[in-house]
Structure formats: C-alpha cells, structure tokens
Design brief:
This protein is mostly helical. The protein has one domain. It is 78% helix and 0% strand. The protein contains eleven helices and no strands. Helix 5 packs across helix 8. The protein is globular.
Length: 248
C-alpha cells in the first residue's frame, strides 16, 4: 500500500466512524476503499470489521450520557447481539455470499421504511409507549440484525434504529446510544473470531481503526445535536444510498 493509498483508507475510516456513530453504514465507505487499493473481497471484509470495532466503541462512549438509565435494556439485548455477531462471522467464513447479498438490499429498504414511519407504526405495534422493557420481538430481531452485522454490516445501524424505535419506549437519541453499544458488541465479537481463524491485513485494519475512532468521537459529539426529524431523515438517506450502492 502506497502512502497516498494509506491516507485514502485512513480518511475512509474517519468518515465511516462518524457515520456509524450517527446512523450506521460506515462499511459502505471503508469496504469499497479497501477493494480500491487492491485487497481481495473476503480479506477486505474481515479486515474492515476488525478496523471498525474501535470506532463503534468510540461512538458508544461518546453517547454515554444517553445510555444513563438503560442498563437493564443493555443487559437484555447485548447477549442477542453477541450471539448474532458470532453466527454472522461464522457464516461469512463458511458460506458463499451470493444468496445473502441478494437479501441485503431488501433488509436495508425495510429498515428505512420502518425508521421513516416509526412514529405512526409505534402506535399500532405492541403499544411500546406502555412498555419499558420493550416488545417481545425486539430480542430476536436484534439477534437477526447481529447475524447480518457479523456477516457484512452495511446499514446494520439503520436496521437497529428501526427495531429499537418501534419496539422500545424512548426517544431517538437514546436509541442511537443503545444502537452504538449493540453494534460495538457485534463488531467486536465477529472481529475476535476473524482474528483467531482468518488472516487480517493489519495495516488496513490499523488505519481504519485509527480513523474510525477519531470519527466515532466526532460523530457522537455532533450527532446528538440533531433534532429527531433530521436524524430520521439522515438515517433514511444513508439507507437509500446503501441500497443504490449495493445494487448498482
């Protein structure tokens, strides 16, 4: 990797860390960047996951104020994300990506629709405004999102925000903080698995780790200042961009 390619990957990591803290889908910046500098797809995917793990942790730390009072929720949902991340990582290492890749745009589109219409849908689905613990389907949905996140992860945040916004009783910024914690668990679980059983491009992973950590703190600092309607619009826009990028 040349010096200018290294700078390119570092900047992609910064952008991904910022986007992941606010919305998710940072993989759509870093994964193509690694492919562009000549890293093979599977190696790029696992190296990208390892590199983004510190950045998602930085975003979660940056949102620690919004996590106050959510300890019970985290204890209920973290095991689902942990299990999902491990399962998704195993699938990446053992299965061809053709079938799963065909489903990904559909999942992202569903997530965008759920986020966009969450204020209206939440009145109909399980009456979450009366349930502090959340709707019954939140835990299995978080597990399924963890599987997807461990496998590839683009727009994992969009899907998580849709699930948490519909199934839990809280505001969007607090859900964003919780989303960052769950995404950190997924990325860390799958990253550890990849480190143990697969080769890693450590230069690429290190550059992304540094960039995404910086971006994670920046995203947390400025993301919490967005009003709910702006955050919701940003989530939908990133999701649509993810669909267009993956399809075309």
């Amino acid at each position: 990797m040349t010096w200018y390619e290294a700078v390119f990957v570092l900047l992609a990591g910064m952008g991904a860390g910022t986007i992941n803290a606010v919305v998710g889908s940072g993989t759509l910046l870093t994964f193509p960047a690694l492919l562009a500098v000549g890293i093979p797809p599977v190696l790029a995917n696992v190296s990208n996951t390892v590199g983004l793990a510190p950045g998602t942790a930085a975003g979660a730390i940056g949102y620690r104020r919004e996590l106050e009072g959510q300890r019970g929720r985290m204890l209920r949902l973290i095991p689902a994300s942990l299990a999902g991340g491990i399962v998704g990582g195993v699938l990446l290492l053992t299965l061809p990506d053709s079938a799963f890749h065909a489903v990904v745009p559909v999942l992202i589109l569903l997530g965008c629709l759920l986020v966009a219409f969450q204020p209206w849908l939440s009145k109909w689905i399980s009456a979450p405004s009366h349930l502090h613990r959340g709707a019954w389907w939140v835990i299995p949905a978080v597990f399924a999102t963890g599987v997807y996140g461990g496998y590839f992860g683009a727009a994992q945040g969009v899907l998580l925000m849709a699930i948490l916004g519909l199934g839990l009783d809280s505001n969007l910024q607090r859900m964003n903080g919780l989303k960052n914690v769950l995404a950190t668990v997924v990325n860390t679980a799958s990253a550890i698995l990849f480190i143990v059983v697969h080769d890693i491009d450590w230069l690429a992973a290190g550059l992304i780790a540094v960039g995404s950590t910086i971006g994670g703190f920046l995203g947390a600092r400025y993301g919490r200042k967005l009003p709910p309607i702006a955050l919701r619009a940003l989530i939908v826009c990133i999701g649509v961009l993810a669909i267009v990028t993956m399809v075309f």
